[in-house]
Amino acid sequence: MKPPPLTMQWNLSLCSLMGVALLSQMSSTSTVNVALQGVATQSSQFSTANVNNVKACNAIDGIPNPNADNGSCTHTASETDPWWRVNLLDVYKVTTVVVTNRDSNPERLDGAEIHIGNSLENNGNNNSICAVISNTSAGQKHTFQCNEMEGHYVSVIIRGTARILTLCELEVYGSRAGHCSSATCLLHDEYHFVNQNMTWTEAQCYCRLKYTDLATIDNVEDLDRQMKAVHSGYTEAAWIGLKKGDWKGEWQWSDNDCSEGYFNWRQDKPNNRGWNEDCVMMTNSSQWNNSNCNNSHVFICYDRLNSSGTKFHFINNTQMTWRDAQMYCRENHTDLASVRNLTENEEIFRLASGHSVWIGLFRGSWKWSDQSNCSFRNWHERQHDNTGGNQTCAVTFMNYSGRWGCQKCDEKLPFFCYYNKVILIHEKKTWKDALAYCRKHHNDLVSVHSDEVQRWVKAQAKRASTPHVWLGLRFTCTLNLWFWVSGESTCYHNWAPGNGIVMEDCGKTGAGRTGAVEKDGSHQWVSLPDTVELNFICSTSNRRESEPSSSTVACTKMALP
Ligand SMILES: *[C@@H]1O[C@H](CO)[C@@H](O)[C@H](O)[C@H]1NC(C)=O
Ligand SMILES: *[C@@H]1O[C@H](CO)[C@@H](O)[C@H](O)[C@H]1NC(C)=O
Ligand SMILES: *[C@@H]1O[C@H](CO)[C@@H](O)[C@H](O)[C@H]1NC(C)=O
Ligand SMILES: *[C@@H]1O[C@H](CO)[C@@H](O)[C@H](O)[C@H]1NC(C)=O
Ligand SMILES: *[C@@H]1O[C@H](CO)[C@@H](O)[C@H](O)[C@H]1NC(C)=O
Ligand SMILES: *[C@@H]1O[C@H](CO)[C@@H](O)[C@H](O)[C@H]1NC(C)=O
Ligand SMILES: *[C@@H]1O[C@H](CO)[C@@H](O)[C@H](O)[C@H]1NC(C)=O
Ligand SMILES: *[C@@H]1O[C@H](CO)[C@@H](O)[C@H](O)[C@H]1NC(C)=O
Ligand SMILES: *[C@@H]1O[C@H](CO)[C@@H](O)[C@H](O)[C@H]1NC(C)=O
Ligand SMILES: *[C@@H]1O[C@H](CO)[C@@H](O)[C@H](O)[C@H]1NC(C)=O
Ligand SMILES: *[C@@H]1O[C@H](CO)[C@@H](O)[C@H](O)[C@H]1NC(C)=O
Ligand SMILES: *[C@@H]1O[C@H](CO)[C@@H](O)[C@H](O)[C@H]1NC(C)=O
Ligand SMILES: [Ca+2]
After folding, report:
1. The CATH number fitting domain 189-304, selected from 2.40.50.100, 3.10.100.10, 1.10.1040.10, 3.30.2170.10
2. For ligand 2, atom 1: residue with the closest CA
3. Residues with beta carbon inside 6 Å of ligand 8?
4. Which residues line ligand 10 (CB under 6 A)?
5. Distance of CA 256 to the CA centre of its chain
6. 286 lines ligand 6 (CB under 6 A)
7. How far apart are CA 477 and CA 480, in angstroms?
């Protein structure tokens, strides 16, 4: 179905000129424990024959078993001010922290402080306090409300001499505070769980026919909405859109920083001469060189500071593979270094003083079915490393907070699809060029005819790089009316005060009047000349009727249920 031409639709109802609808605030509590994908560390480790019973990561293994001898609790040595910390690998607004105390010696946890914040100063224990644990009962879960405190780290410290810190589980619930600006990170409006057993390829075909594609998950909010899409009580593994293959993904930063644009490759680099050169080091000339990830080098970590600044650390007392260096940095600091501009490149170069050092840039061979190159990963431990050659398709484990693992692609499993109804285009275009772009590549410039659509539009607009984002809204001087170019007519409105009224300055400026949504604030609509260059939002069609991809063709030949 072709969208209607850019002319006034006669069925436009006059009631669309009345009233300003109030935005219903979207509020949802996260059901995903974001600590599970973090990296834990502690001030010391109790000396014991079985280190598995005392490791820092036991508090984020997803098992709230309170028996300290059962391999799922942490245990420091007896010392002054023992602490434990989880690096969430991104900044979250934390709503609650749930602590499981051990079943013996529970009083040891009394007086422990839970800190949340962005600073690693004093091991994270100078961050603000969410709660002080008191009157803890043996083996019980205790929930602390943290009122959306923002932080990259959650830490627990017991102050005093000869103290021992043991945690059997620490869960963190909240939503991501950051705003990903990567053009290829799409917002997946709707996830659908399909409870039919199919191979990964069959599932991909099914999703592309019925929805947009197999599920892509870009962040913890996506993960949360994906988990909530299961209504049948299914608790096993299900396919998502991630697949490993003989291809190379985009170069991406370990810390998932969506910043783009700065590269300082050596001449003729990166190259694929060595197919296995997937990790990047800064050479002794300050330029970058891709190299085998299994090689051992010294490396550069960074600390996230409380403000937006960073501090680099040169780790020169040990050489590690890129993966081990990444793990070291995530435990002791924030992550392997990201290099975002020339200043930072120079800073790292000086610090490395003539050594070649690992930095946080790498590329993987996992790719999303929809070709988006978002680097969010949610693997269960090192599941993706021991794939044994054949397990090259990713599943999400429903009984494990959605964490990911690998399976053979020809196994038959239920799966998740997503459906995108609107899409933010990160290019800057005039209103007319934006309209042409949407009609060529998608469906149309978006029409906002309900609270629901306004919510999707708001979520997309937040990630724009311009202060306003075009909508399919236009004013006609002849009729003195605002109308949606898609021809949809409704009474729904969300104009900012003073906008959307009739008697616009017709003809005075020579430019037509068109409507855009605010990137920030209350995301209301404003009237702007159509010559302004803005990001814009297209609506998508449910089915891809034009130019079916080869896989869609293959799919139609397959007997689908
Ligand atoms: C130890 O953990 C296992 C598996 O979680 C469980 O079956 C067993 O009952 C636990 N034992 C104790 C003493 O908690
Ligand atoms: C951090 O905490 C330590 C120990 O409590 C204190 O001595 C120091 O002054 C604190 N630093 C800042 C900047 O607050
Ligand atoms: C401590 O907790 C127990 C059970 O959770 C409760 O019965 C008791 O009243 C609490 N004591 C104090 C001082 O809060
Ligand atoms: C999918 O396969 C599993 C295991 O073979 C089976 O238990 C389940 O009932 C199947 N589900 C459907 C919807 O056919
Ligand atoms: C790195 O080492 C692992 C394990 O030793 C091996 O499986 C893998 O193929 C190696 N990767 C490269 C790129 O050499
Ligand atoms: C830089 O490293 C390369 C290769 O490791 C080496 O050949 C060269 O001599 C080094 N240059 C300096 C100035 O250290
Ligand atoms: C760049 O990497 C390649 C492959 O790892 C290596 O042979 C070469 O010496 C490196 N060059 C420099 C200047 O470090
Ligand atoms: C960051 O920390 C410094 C001291 O370390 C403090 O003076 C400053 O107020 C902090 N800034 C924020 C935004 O917390
Ligand atoms: C390692 O780094 C430290 C401080 O950055 C420096 O003092 C030391 O000399 C370096 N060691 C080597 C072997 O480069
Ligand atoms: C960093 O982590 C390693 C373990 O990965 C540990 O051995 C080392 O002591 C830590 N260093 C610091 C400064 O905490
Ligand atoms: C380089 O990037 C850092 C981190 O984003 C920023 O604080 C700094 O101002 C930038 N410097 C320049 C010269 O752009
Ligand atoms: C991969 O699958 C083939 C065929 O099913 C099988 O023969 C082979 O042993 C498998 N390899 C591994 C490492 O599991
Ligand atoms: Ca545990």
Report:
1. 3.10.100.10
2. 126
3. 306-307
4. 328, 331-332
5. 8
6. no
7. 5
